[in-house]
User: Fold these one by one.
Assistant:
Number 1:
Amino acid sequence: MPLAVIDTNVVVSGVLSSSPGSPTVRIVDAMLSGRLRFALSETLLIEYRRVLSRPTIVERHGLTGAEVDHFLEGLVVNALMRDPSVTDHGGAPATDLPAAVHGDEHVIALMAAVPEAVLVSGDIRLRESLASRYQVASPAEFADGLK
Amino acid sequence: MPRMTITLSEQRQKAVKETAARRGVSITELIDESLELAGVRTQEDAAHIVARARAKSGLSDAEAMDLALRETAAVRGPS
C-alpha cells in the first residue's frame, strides 16, 4: 500500500456518506484503523477541522466540536506528520511547483514534501493539474487497492 | 476486561487511594477519568463517532462528495 495524501474533500465525504462500503467511507475507516499509510501536515489537518466545522456540514453530521476533535485525534494517531517546509531529503521543497490553483497550495506543498505519495482527491481539477508531476487517484481508484 | 500493572511512587499511590476515597469512586474509575481528561481515547470511540455521523447525514456517496467539494472550495477561496 503506497503512502497517500488524503484531500479534505475525501475525509469530509467519508464522514458524511451513509453508503456502506463507499470508497470514501473505506478510506476514512482505513485511516482510523491504521491500515492506511497517509501523510498529513498541520495546515491540512486544520483544514479538515475547518470544513468539518462549517454550519452546513455540522447540520448533516450532528457532531459537537469535541467529537470532531476526537475523530481528528483518531486520524492523527496513525498519520505520518510532515512539515511541508522540509522535504524527506532535508532540503526545501521544489519551488517549481505546477501553477498552483488558488487555495490548494498547502496540498501541493505537502505533496512536494512526500513526492512518493499518491494524492487522493475527489477534485478532478486538482487531480488533473498535478497528474503530470505526482501520482493522483480518485477515491474509487484508490479504495480499489484497500484490503 | 484485561488487567494492567503499573508502577507508581509511594506518594502517588497514596494520593490515588485518597482521591478515589474522597470522591467515592474506584481507583479504576479515577484512572479512567484521568486518561480521558488527558486525551487518551480509543480508536473505537472515533469509529463510533463517525458511524453516528454517517447514520445521521442520510447522504448518498455522491451527495456527500458534492457537499464536501463545495464546502472545501468555500474554505479554500475562489479559484
Number 2:
Amino acid sequence: MKIFATYNIKGGVGKTATAVNLSYLAAQDGYRVLLWDLDAQAAASFLFRIRPRVKGGGKALIRGTRSIDEAIKATDFDNLDLLPADFTYRNLDLVLDAAKKPSRRLGSLLAPLSGEYDVVFLDCPPGISLLSESVLNAADTLLVPLIPTTLSVRTLDQLTDFIGGLDGSRPSILAFFSMLDRRKRLHREICEQLPAQRADVAATAIPAMSLIEQMSVQRAPVTAFAPRSAAARRYAELWAEARERAGLPQLSGSSSMP
Amino acid sequence: MQSVVRQFVLNGDDGAEADRVLKLPGSAFAVSQASRSMTLRRLWLDTFDWRLYRSGLTLEQVSRAGVTELALTGRDGAVLAADRFAPPARGADGAGRARPAWPGLLDALPLGPLRDHLGPVVGVRALLPVARAVSVVREAKVLNSDEKTVARIAVDRMSITFPAAAAMPPRLAVSALRGYQGQAQRVADLLAAAPGVQPAGGSGLEAALAAAGRRPGEYSGKIDVKLTPRMPAGLAMAALLAALFDTLQANVPGTLRDLDTEFLHDLRVAVRRTRSALKLTGDVLPGGMAARFQPEFRWLGDLTTPTRDLDVYLLGYPDMAAGLVAATGDELAPFHAYLERSRTAAQRQLARGLRSARFARLTRDWPDAVTAAAARPGATRPSAARLAASRIGRAHRRVLRDGRAITATSPPESLHELRKRCKELRYLLEFFGSLYDPGEHWRAVRELKALQDCLGEFQDTQVQREEIHAFAAQMMEQRAAPAATLLAMGEIAAGLAVRQQQARGEFAGRFRYFSSPDGQSRFRALTGAAA
C-alpha cells in the first residue's frame, strides 16, 4: 500500500483538486484507492457528494474506539472509496496530542487497510501542526502544489528542511506548480526553469482553469466529467509522474466486471 | 466496492414492467437507468458428482468483451475467491492470462486463492459446465438527494442455453455501495413491496437449472434406492440393478472422453456391485438371468482394470516420488513417462471395448432383463427384509470364518480372498441400507470399513509390487529404463513392501475388534431388527 499526501502550509493552492483527481485516476488504472479527507472544510467529501460526517467524530477514529472500516464510504466510481471529513477534524491536533506517539498515529491507523487498498491519498488541511507531522510520517510520497512564485520556492525549501529534521520515515517530495497562469511572464519562467534544476519538482504543471473550478458545480473530478480536457490531461501526466516516483507499476487499466 | 443485498424475480414482465418497478414510486430516491445494457456470458461449473453444490458452493464464470472472471461464492452469495483472465493488453508488457478451457482439471487454473479454495472440495475430479446462459444486464443507479449513488439495481434478463434452452423471468439484484447498506436495504424493501416482484429463491445456477428442467445434485455415486421390508426380494433386486445400471451408463461418456479418473472408478464400482448382486442374490431373479450376464459383467470389469491400475499408480506418483530417500524424483521420471504411455495405450483399449458390439449388446439386453425381472418378481419369493437378513448374515459368517483361519504364516492369497468376502458384505450392506436404522447401519459399515482399509492396503501394495516388477521388465525390453530409474523403482518396491508389512501387522488387531462379541451382536441387531 502506497500512501500519497497532498500538502502545503498555504491554503487554496489546489491540494484537494489534486487529491480528488489523482485518486480517481489511480482507481481508473485499476488500483484500489482510499481517499481520506482530513480537512474539516470537507471539500473532497463535497466533490464526491458524500456527507461530511463520521460517527463519533475524529476523536473516535484517532483513539481507535471506532474502526476506520465502518466510516469508509464508496464513491460513485469503481475502486475508489472515501473516508469522509467531519467537522470535529478541526480539533484533531488536540486529540492527537492526547494520543501515544501522535506523529505515528495516522500510519498505524492505516496499516490494517493494506490488504484492502493499494493506494491511499491523504488530503490535508493547510498549516503545520501535529496532524501534518503525523501525515508526513505516514506518507510515502508528498505531493506539494506550489503557486509559481519565488516565495513558494522558499516554502518548498523550508518544507524540505522541516522533513529532514523529522524522526522516523520521511516521505519523498514531489512538488509541482499549480494554478499556473501562462499570461504571467514570471509564472512561465519559473515553471520552465525549476523542474530542470530540481529533481523534487515535477515536469507537469497544472494550469489555472475554469474547468477545474467547475468541479464544485459538477461535484465530480474533472478527470471524470471532462476526461479529454487539457486540465484532465495535465492531471494524468502528474499522476504518471507521481506513480513512477512512488514505484507503482502501470496497470493495464480497469474494465471492472459487474 | 459493492455487495448484493437482495435478489428478486420480476414476474409477468412485458418489457415496461421493469421500468415501472425501477422508478421506486413513492420514495425520495431518484433512479437513473443506464442508457446501454451489457451482454454477459455465464457458465456454471461443477464436478460430475456435484461436489461444489453439495458443499454449498457455486463456481460461475462470467465473460464480457474478452475479459473473464471466475468467482466462487458461498451459500450467502459472498465471493470467497475469484480469478480474472484477460488477453494481453495491446502495447502492454503483461502477458495476459488465457481463459481456462472446460471441462478441465484444477491444474487448468493458475495457482492462487481460488485454486486453494477449490482443491479440497474438487479433488481429482474435472470441472464440467453444468449450465450456460446469456445475460443482458442493464444497471440502474439509486441516488439520494445529493445525487450520490447509494445502491445499484441490476436487471438481468437471462436466457439459458445449456443444458436446455429456456427463458427466465428478469432477476433484479440490489447491491449496496460501501457505507450505504441502510439505504440499499430501504431500496430492497421498496422493491419487495412492488407488485410482480418476488424474492429470488436460490442461486442463479439453481434458477437456471430449474428453468431448464433440471436440478442440481442429480448424480451421486452412492446407492440411493429406497426399499421397503415387505416388498418382494426380486423387485428390490431389480430396482437396485436398475439404479446400478444408471450409474454405469452415466459414467460411460466421461470415461470415453477421459475427463478425469473418477468416471472409470465409478463405472468399475457399478460393475462390481452388479456382479456381487448377481452372485449373492441371483437366485431371486428370473431363472438363467444371473448365469447369462455374469460372464458379460466379468468381461466389462476386466476391460477396465488395466487403465484403473495405471490411474492408481499415476495418482499416487507425486507421493511416491516425494517419498524417495536414496533416489531422486528426476531419476524416476522415465518411469512416469512409461506409466503415461502405458495409460494412453490402456485407455485406447478401454475405449475400443466401450464402443464394441459386445458392450452395445450388454447395454441393450441388460436393462430389458432387469425390467422383465421387475415385472414378475414372484409372489412366493421372500421379502426384501428376509433376503437382506439371510444374505448379510451369510456373508458376515463367511468373513468371520475366513478371517479366523488367517495366521501370521497365511499366504497373501488368503488375505485377498478375505478382502473379496468383505467387499461382498459391504455391498450387501449398501444395497439394503435403506431397510435399516441409519445409526446402526452406519456403525456396522464403519467397523467393516476399518477392516477393509487394512486389507485393501495389504492387497494394493501386493499388486503394485508385482506390477512394478512387470513394469521394470517391460521398460527394459523397450530400452526405456536407465539403471538409475530401475534403482529408484526398486526403492519404491521396497517402500511398498514396508507398507504391506505394516498392513499385515495391523490386520490381527482390526479383525479381533471386528469379530468381537460386541461387533457380532451389532451385526445381528442390524439384520434382526428389520426381519
